Design the sequence.
């Protein structure tokens, strides 16, 4: 089920090793992967691997949790609207997508060890819950027009915990994990002796974990007059995070009519393994960060699973289409300017941009379906869509300093989907889809220091 | 104060002999200190277990605390002398308390977590006539995730509250294609899924009043909760015998199934707790929990099946198939449940007090009268009264190193629950299950380690 591991860099493969970008495509996955997490990072183009200093770091780079010196609890609201279009023969034009809305919560806590560990270790939690669902598993027939990597994947719970340590010499390390849930179960339906029907239902929610490891280094040159570092590099690895839906429906004992066991399964959520690198520069009131994230989409097995499992013997049951997703590189840049106010209060303005190429190929293989009219197998187009996104971000915040133990931050993002065409032809019917759209996202968070 | 203590004890003895348990924490406690003290800590808790016992207690925390532990519960429950192999309850216990001050008042947030070893939750529904230990069979197979905050606006008053999160499921499954009734695995079927794991959160609130240096009261409310599993499946498919292309469909199957299950029902509860320190180092606690069991919903699936399967030309007999008919719907009989009061008694004695370390002895008792009415009819929700006796040890190391300037605590507990064996007599002598005797015991052991800063 593993797709080919090709990489696409048709654009910018030139000199600067920092920003190598894949051309034709885009992708996103869980809410934090699409929009970022925290009061600060989403307004700075999703940067933070080398520049975070709060609960953002539980996602961006747990090593930077070690910069936390005070306990904070942050809570807010976050939302996004989707305006996604797929135009062409047999396509709906605008694709209906439920708006995303939810509550982000961040916690950052320095762990007050003494001795050699004093002021060196802190923990953080990044938590986001959609307001009405924890996880949406929308696994549709492949011929239905859909943006499976962008729209429904934002409707997911996110839980990330991390621990960061300052081990000296400007080096920080951290580790954490993310949690999602698989739903697995069985429904056995059988006729009862009295003429009724009975059911055994056994469904379980099983946790699935994904590790995160991070490191950061305060470079020893170009120090500020007070000795604080001006340059920092950061690196992070995030493991694959997925959530599977799998319910086996067995109605074969209803009668002597041989019904197969239905394997109703698919991948409801998927974040590929990622490696991110970033460099941040702090000079006076300015922070500038730039980096790139590698996403291993080529391991993505796809959304659908077969409805009938063959077991050990060969069978002619249908199998879902195999799509060769490509690995991607997503560059990002962010800037923050701080304006000091009396009594240690501060205003902060932020901006950023990122480029998110799609892992989806420009030509999609056809799928197979049974046509009740002809009572034959027929080819149908596969309409799993995605497009490269150009993302602009803005943000700002107020730290009330000694006046009150509160911070207020807000951010907004505009995602513009690059106009592109995807070939969805079948053997008998050439067709294509023209994709376009945009996503508007926002967030506002209030933090309390305690 | 002693008069108050003995009066309340008497009141409880008169009122109580009834009670029961709900989720893994209700049944077996949270953390070794609380479990060893019979759960009687609503007015005497300040560590991570306050997330469950009384969130207001979080505001009493002296410093940042991290706790981790493990609990293992083994059931030996039997019917007619045969062990029913009720699944064990075992998993990780963890929590944190993060104290601070907001506008000068002590404030804290806390997280409490119980993660079962094998799964986060399991929804299991059996036919109502199938005997099962209703309160132990599956209800305790669940994650518990509490998030709370607390504040102490006055030196003698602490207030706290929070929510516990769970996930319910709603799913719509569509299956289309062609069924090969000769070789089912050659069926040409596809499916699509529209499923949501929906957030379910239920609240808990707590208050604690320090009456004097040696006495405190606690009041806790825990909200009602249940986990829904709603699955609808639609099958619309042709039916044939043999490979596609070798013959036409003999008929068409249209099957619509709905499966609605309510599981893990947790009734709302109110806890009144008291704690007394008659002499230095000795805590005598008594809690009384009211459990609204009468609202209970049994975990029996409401199954609806509509089957449209027209006979093929020439009838079914030529294919040797006896077709299914649309089955009669299940009538789920109501369950008779009674509200209960659960008494909890707990003792903690600081037996050793040195400058570098302290040692604690703990003991507890709780009595849960079964809330389930007589099972003399068709249903077989098996339960028995439960007497739970517990004991525990605790060690507190004070400022064990320069890296750990606070303390390190190790607490352990063992609890034996005895469910006296008795016989359930069926009204109908032809009942397929018949009369049965049921009873047994449950061992609950665990260890918790806490680092306080």
Sequence:
């Amino acid at each position: 089920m593993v797709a080919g591991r090709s990489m696409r860099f048709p654009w910018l493969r030139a000199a600067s090793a920092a920003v190598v970008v894949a051309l034709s495509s885009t992708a996103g996955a869980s809410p934090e992967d699409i929009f970022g997490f925290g009061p600060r990072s989403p307004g700075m183009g999703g940067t933070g691997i080398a520049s975070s200093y709060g609960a953002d770091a539980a996602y961006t780079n747990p090593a930077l949790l070690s910069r936390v010196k005070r306990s904070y609890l942050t809570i807010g609201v976050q939302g996004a609207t989707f305006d996604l279009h797929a135009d062409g023969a047999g396509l709906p034009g605008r694709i209906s997508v439920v708006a995303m809305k939810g509550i982000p919560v961040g916690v950052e806590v320095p762990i007050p060890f003494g001795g050699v560990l004093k002021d060196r270790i802190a923990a953080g939690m990044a938590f986001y819950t959609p307001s009405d669902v924890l996880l949406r598993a929308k696994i549709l027939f492949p011929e239905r027009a859909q943006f499976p990597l962008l729209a429904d994947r934002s409707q997911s719970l996110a839980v990330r915990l991390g621990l960061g340590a300052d081990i000296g010499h400007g080096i920080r390390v951290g580790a954490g994990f993310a949690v999602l849930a698989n739903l697995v179960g069985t429904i056995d339906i059988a006729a009862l002796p009295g003429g009724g029907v009975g059911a055994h239902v056994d469904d379980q929610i099983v946790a699935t974990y994904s590790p995160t490891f991070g490191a950061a280094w305060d470079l020893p040159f170009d120090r500020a007059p007070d000795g604080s570092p001006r340059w920092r590099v950061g690196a992070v690895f995030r493991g694959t995070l997925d959530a599977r839906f799998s319910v086996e429906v067995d109605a074969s004992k209803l009668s002597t009519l041989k019904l197969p066991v239905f394997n109703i399964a698919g991948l409801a959520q998927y974040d590929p393994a990622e490696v991110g690198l970033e460099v941040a520069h702090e000079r006076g009131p300015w922070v500038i960060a730039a980096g790139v994230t590698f996403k291993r989409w080529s391991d993505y097995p796809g959304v659908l699973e077969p409805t009938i499992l063959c077991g050990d013997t060969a069978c002619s049951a249908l199998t879902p289409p195999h799509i060769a997703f490509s690995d991607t590189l997503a560059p990002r840049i962010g800037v923050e300017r701080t304006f000091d106010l009396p009594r240690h209060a501060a205003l902060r303005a932020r901006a950023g941009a990122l480029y998110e190429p799609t892992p989806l190929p420009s030509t999609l293989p056809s799928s197979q379906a049974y046509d009740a009219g002809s009572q034959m197998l027929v080819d149908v187009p596969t309409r799993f869509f995605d497009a490269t996104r150009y993302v602009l971000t803005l943000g700002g915040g107020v730290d009330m300093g000694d006046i009150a133990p509160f911070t207020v931050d807000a951010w907004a993002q505009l995602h513009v989907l690059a106009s592109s065409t995807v070939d969805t032809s079948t053997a008998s019917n050439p067709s294509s889809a023209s994709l376009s759209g945009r996503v508007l996202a926002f967030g506002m968070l209030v933090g309390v220091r305690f | 104060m002693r008069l108050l203590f003995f009066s309340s004890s008497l009141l409880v003895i008169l009122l109580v002999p009834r009670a029961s348990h709900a989720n893994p924490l209700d049944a077996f406690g949270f953390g070794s200190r609380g479990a060893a003290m019979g759960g009687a800590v609503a007015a005497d808790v300040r560590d991570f277990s306050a997330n469950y016992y009384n969130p207001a207690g979080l505001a009493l925390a002296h410093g940042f605390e991290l706790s981790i532990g493990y609990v293992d519960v083994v059931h030996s429950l039997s019917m007619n002398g045969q062990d029913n192999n009720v699944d064990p309850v075992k998993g990780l216990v963890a929590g944190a308390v993060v104290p601070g001050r907001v506008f000068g008042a002590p404030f804290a947030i806390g997280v409490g977590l119980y993660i079962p070893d094998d799964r986060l939750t399991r929804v299991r529904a059996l036919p109502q006539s199938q005997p099962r230990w209703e309160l132990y069979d599956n209800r305790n197979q669940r994650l518990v995730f509490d998030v709370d905050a607390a504040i102490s606006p006055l030196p003698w008053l602490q207030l706290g509250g929070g929510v516990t999160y769970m996930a319910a499921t709603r799913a719509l499954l569509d299956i289309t294609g062609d069924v090969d009734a000769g070789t089912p695995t050659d069926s040409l079927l596809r499916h699509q899924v529209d499923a949501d794991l929906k957030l379910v959160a239920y609240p808990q609130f707590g208050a604690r009043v320090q009456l004097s240096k040696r006495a405190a009261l606690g009041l806790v409310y825990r909200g009602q909760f249940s986990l829904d599993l709603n699955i609808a499946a639609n099958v619309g498919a042709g039916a044939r015998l043999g490979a596609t292309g070798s013959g036409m469909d003999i008929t068409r199957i249209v099957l619509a199934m709905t499966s609605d299950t309510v599981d893990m029902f947790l009734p709302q509860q109110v806890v009144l707790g008291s704690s007394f320190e008659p002499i230095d180092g000795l805590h005598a606690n008594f809690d009384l929990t009211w459990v609204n069991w009468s609202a209970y919903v049994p975990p029996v699936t409401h199954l609806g099946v509509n089957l449209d399967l027209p006979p093929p030309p020439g009838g079914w007999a030529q294919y040797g198939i006896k077709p299914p008919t649309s089955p009669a719907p299940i009538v789920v009989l109501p369950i008779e449940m009674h509200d209960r009061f659960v008494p909890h008694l707990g003792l903690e004695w600081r037996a050793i007090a040195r400058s570098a370390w302290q040692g604690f002895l703990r003991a507890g008792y709780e009595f849960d009268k079964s809330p389930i009415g007589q099972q003399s009819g068709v249903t077989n929700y098996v339960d028995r009264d439960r007497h739970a006796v517990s004991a525990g040890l605790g060690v507190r190391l004070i400022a064990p190193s320069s890296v750990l300037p606070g303390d390190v605590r190790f607490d352990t507990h063992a609890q034996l629950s005895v469910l006296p064996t008795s016989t359930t007599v069926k009204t109908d002598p032809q009942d397929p299950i018949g009369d049965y005797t049921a009873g047994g015991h449950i061992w609950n052991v665990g260890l918790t380690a806490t680092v306080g800063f």
About this structure: The helical segments of chain B are 2-15, 24-28, 32-36, 50-53. The radius of gyration of chain B is 27 Å. The CA atoms of residues 40 and 248 of chain B lie 71 Å apart.
